[in-house]
Design brief:
By secondary structure, this protein is α/β, with parallel strands linked by helices. The chain folds into two domains: 140 residues, Aspartate Aminotransferase, domain 1 (Alpha-Beta Complex), CATH 3.90.1150; 242 residues, Type I PLP-dependent aspartate aminotransferase-like (Major domain) (Aspartate Aminotransferase, domain 2, 3-Layer(aba) Sandwich). Helices cover 43% and strands 16% of the residues. The strands form four sheets. A seven-stranded mixed β-sheet has the order 2-10-9-8-7-3-4, with helices on both faces. β11 and β12 form a beta hairpin. The longest helix is centred in the C-terminal third of the chain and has 25 residues. The radius of gyration is 21 Å and the shape is globular. The chain starts with 19 loop residues before the first helix and ends with a helix. It binds 4'-deoxy-4'-aminopyridoxal-5'-phosphate (PMP) and glutamine. The site of glutamine has 5 residues, from loops.
C-alpha cells in the first residue's frame, strides 16, 4: 500500500488506530456510561505533593530540567529503591526520568532492538508494547497467561516461555504486577524467567508501574533482585498509579549505566526532558508519602472486593487480582463466548464501560471470554456500575 496525502501513515503503524482506552473513554462520554474502562482514579493524589508542584511553578522552576531528570528526583528514586528492595542504583548514571512509563518502554525498546530482533512478552500485553515494537521493527513473541483454575490467577507455562525464545530473541519484556490480568509474578515464576534470560543472555525490560498496588499478603518482587539479574535488567516504574496522578506522566528507569546511556540516547530525541515541577513533586512523594500510598493500597483492596462481589452477583466469573487496578471477568456463565462483543455492546445496553481483554492479545483464544473492569473508582461509582449491570442482567433473563 502506498502512502498518499489522505493515507499518510507509515506501513509499520497502520495496525494501530486509536488506543482502546481513548476509544472506550470517548464511548463512555458519548453514552453517559460509567467508565470502568481506562485505568485512572477519580480521586486526587496526596495534597502536600500537589502543593509541591504548585510551589515549584510559582517558585520559577519553569525552564528545561536536565535531560536525565532533576537530581532531587533521581536521588529520591535511588533512595526508594534501596530502602524498599535493597537495590542500589547510582542516581547520576543508573537512573533516567522519562515521560511516564510509556516513554520509558518505547525508548528502551528503540534503544535495545535492531530491526528483526525478537521480543518475548506476556500475553495479554499492555497496548503500548506492541506499538513500541512495531516502531522499532522488532517482532513480538507472546507467551500466554491463562487462568490456572476457574476464578483463579493467571499464569504462564514455563514450556511456552522456553519455546518462545529463539536465537533472534533480544529482550524479555515483562510486566509485573500485570495489566490486565492482575497477576503479580511469584519468586518461582521470576526465577524461571531469570534462568532463561541468563541462559540466552537476554536483556529484561520490566514494567513495574503497579509495584505498590498489591493486595492481601502478595508482595511485589522486582526481577532485578534475583541473582545475576540486576546487570541485565531495565526496571521501569512511574508515579501515575502509585500517587494517583496518571496525568502527570512522570516515569523512570533504573538500570546499569550502559543501558541507561543507551535509553538516554533515544529518549533525548523523543522528548529531551520532562516537566520540572512535576518531577520535584514526585521526589517529595517518594520520600514522604509512602504512608499515603499504603492507605491507597488498603482502600483499593476494599474496592477490588466490592467490585468483585458485584460482578459475581451479576453472574460473571470473577478472577480476583493479586494487584493492579483491574479485575478480569469471564462472560461465559452468562451464556456468551465473546467478551469483545459483550464489552462493545455494554455501554449502549447497560450503561457501563469495560475493556475487552482480546484487544491485548495476538492469539484471540487467550483473551476471548474476558472483559477488564477497573476498580480504581469511588465506591458510589462502583455501586452505580454494578446496579446498572444487575438491571441489565435482569432484563436479559
Ligand atoms: N504500563 C502499564 C502496565 C500500565 O498499566 C500503564 C498505565 N499506567 C503504563 C505502563 C503507562 O504508564 P504512564 O502513564 O506512566 O506512561
Ligand atoms: N494504563 C491505563 C489502563 O490500562 C491506560 C493508559 C492509557 O490510556 N494509555 O487502563
Amino acid at each position: 500500500m502506498g502512502r498518499t496525502l489522505t493515507e499518510p501513515l507509515v506501513e509499520r503503524m497502520r495496525a494501530y488506530g486509536t488506543t482502546i482506552f481513548a476509544e472506550m473513554t470517548a464511548l463512555a462520554q458519548q453514552t453517559g456510561a460509567v467508565n470502568l474502562g481506562q485505568g485512572f482514579p477519580d480521586t486526587d493524589g496526596p495534597n502536600a505533593m500537589l502543593e509541591q508542584a504548585v510551589d515549584a511553578i510559582r517558585g520559577g522552576l519553569n525552564q528545561y530540567p536536565p535531560g536525565p531528570g532533576l537530581p532531587p528526583l533521581r536521588q529520591a528514586i535511588a533512595a526508594h529503591r534501596k530502602a524498599r528492595y535493597g537495590l542500589a542504583y547510582d542516581p547520576d548514571s543508573e537512573i533516567l526520568v522519562t515521560v511516564g512509563a510509556t516513554e520509558a518502554i518505547s525508548a528502551a525498546i528503540l534503544a535495545l532492538c535492531e530491526t528483526g530482533d525478537e521480543v518475548v512478552l506476556l500475553e495479554p500485553y499492555y497496548d503500548s508494547y506492541a506499538a513500541a515494537l512495531s516502531l522499532a521493527g522488532a517482532v513480538r513473541r507472546p507467551v500466554p497467561l491463562r487462568p490456572v483454575a476457574a476464578g483463579g490467577r493467571f499464569a504462564f507455562d514455563p514450556d511456552d516461555l522456553r519455546a518462545a525464545v529463539t536465537p533472534r530473541t533480544r529482550v524479555l519484556l515483562l510486566n509485573s504486577p500485570h495489566n490486565p490480568t492482575g497477576t503479580a509474578l511469584t519468586v518461582d515464576e521470576l526465577q524461571t524467567i531469570a534462568d532463561i534470560a541468563i541462559e540466552h543472555d537476554l536483556i529484561v525490560v520490566t514494567d513495574e508501574v503497579y509495584e505498590h498496588l498489591t493486595f492481601d499478603d502478595v508482595v511485589h518482587v522486582p526481577i532485578a533482585t534475583l541473582p545475576g539479574m540486576r546487570e541485565r535488567t531495565v526496571s521501569v516504574s512511574s508515579a501515575g498509579k502509585t500517587f494517583s496522578v496518571t496525568g502527570w506522566k512522570v516515569g523512570w528507569i533504573c538500570a546499569p549505566a550502559a543501558m541507561v546511556r543507551a535509553v538516554m540516547t533515544v529518549k533525548q530525541f523523543l522528548t529531551f526532558t520532562h516537566s520540572g515541577p512535576m518531577q520535584l513533586a514526585v521526589a517529595h512523594g517518594l520520600l514522604r508519602e509512602m504512608e499515603w500510598v499504603e492507605a491507597l493500597r488498603s482502600s483499593l483492596q476494599l474496592r477490588r472486593d466490592r467490585l468483585a462481589d458485584g460482578l459475581a452477583a451479576v453472574g460473571l466469573d470473577v478472577h480476583k487480582p493479586e494487584a493492579t487496578y483491574f479485575i478480569q471477568a469471564d462472560v461465559r456463565p452468562l451464556g456468551l463466548t465473546d467478551g469483545e462483543s459483550f464489552a462493545r455492546m455494554l455501554p449502549h445496553d447497560a450503561g457501563v464501560v469495560g475493556i475487552p481483554t482480546a484487544v491485548f492479545c495476538d492469539d484471540p483464544d487467550v483473551g476471548r471470554p474476558f472483559v477488564r473492569f477497573a476498580f480504581c473508582k469511588r465506591d458510589d461509582v462502583l455501586d452505580e456500575a454494578v446496579g446498572r449491570l444487575l438491571a441489565y442482567a435482569g432484563r436479559r433473563r
